């Protein structure tokens, strides 16, 4: 077994140990603190890059979409009635959006959910891809304009990052922006909900907080919904 495979296996074992002692998640389709029933899941799909870093698969949304056109996102979407659980939602959406075969993904953890500005419960699902070469990207042109990979540790570093202070119902929070240059030279701005999810995933994987003040908005957990402007 090579070093890349060993690192991924160690990461999988770490998350499985954590899952064994965590309290069970709230039932699908229900929230812990409100009556919201809208639910979505995203796939934080990690693999070992040629440079030895853990990388995450990201997309640029189609410019023709009515919601957040051209924004960077994680593969994922809203739960459908036929979905058995959050993992099923995340894997199905990744298959539909970028052609990622679910059989290639080893799901190792489901992180704490976030409630976005529209009252949708967003559940991050962490999956490991042992061989990136087995993945043949097939973006759905109606939804995805581009697919790229970024080092997960980027979202713990205070480099090429900027922030804006926003306010919601008297509560001030920080909106984070990461400027990332992909291998092809394209510069992507990763911000708002996607940036927040990646900060959370990176903190869980590397077991350390970011090197900057995060200051999350309270509506992440409140379920009340916030003004749609920040797109958190």
From TrEMBL:
**Pfam entry (one):** NUDIX
Checking InterPro entries in the record gives: CoAse (IPR045121), NUDIX_hydrolase-like_dom_sf (IPR015797), NUDIX_hydrolase_dom (IPR000086)
Q: What organism is recorded for this protein?
A: Pyrus ussuriensis x Pyrus communis
| Example GO biological process | acyl-CoA metabolic process
Q: Which UniProt keywords are present, listed alphabetically?
A: Hydrolase, Magnesium, Manganese, Membrane, Metal-binding, Transmembrane, Transmembrane helix
For activity, the cofactor(s) needed are:
Mg(2+); Mn(2+)
What does UniProt give as GO cellular component?
cytoplasm
This protein is called: Nudix hydrolase 15
Coiled-coil ranges per the record? none
Q: Where is this region: Disordered?
A: 63-83
GO molecular function annotations of the record:
coenzyme A diphosphatase activity; guanosine-3',5'-bis(diphosphate) 3'-diphosphatase activity; metal ion binding
Give the residue spans that cross the bilayer. Answer: 188-206
Q: Where is the Nudix hydrolase domain?
A: 37-171
């Amino acid at each position: 077994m090579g070093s890349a495979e060993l690192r991924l296996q160690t990461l999988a074992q770490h998350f499985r140990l954590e899952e064994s002692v965590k309290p069970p998640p709230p039932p699908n389709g229900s929230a812990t603190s409100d009556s919201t029933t809208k639910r979505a899941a995203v796939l934080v799909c990690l693999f070992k890059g040629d440079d030895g870093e853990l990388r995450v698969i990201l997309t640029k949304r189609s410019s023709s979409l009515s919601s957040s056109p051209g924004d960077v996102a994680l593969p994922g979407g809203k739960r459908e009635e036929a979905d058995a659980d959050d993992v099923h939602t995340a894997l199905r959406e990744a298959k539909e959006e970028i052609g990622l075969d679910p059989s290639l993904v080893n799901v190792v953890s489901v992180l704490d959910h976030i409630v976005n500005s529209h009252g949708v419960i967003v559940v991050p699902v962490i999956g490991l891809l042992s061989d990136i070469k087995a993945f043949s990207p097939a973006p759905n042109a109606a939804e995805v304009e581009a697919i790229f990979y970024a080092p997960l540790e980027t979202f713990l570093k205070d480099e090429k990052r900027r922030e804006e202070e926003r306010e919601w119902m008297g509560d001030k929070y920080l909106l984070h922006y990461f400027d990332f240059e992909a291998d092809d030279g394209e510069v992507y701005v990763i911000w708002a909900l996607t940036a927040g999810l990646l900060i959370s995933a990176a903190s869980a994987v590397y077991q350390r907080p970011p090197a900057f003040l995060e200051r999350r908005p309270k509506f992440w957990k409140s379920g009340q919904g916030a003004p749609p402007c920040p797109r958190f």
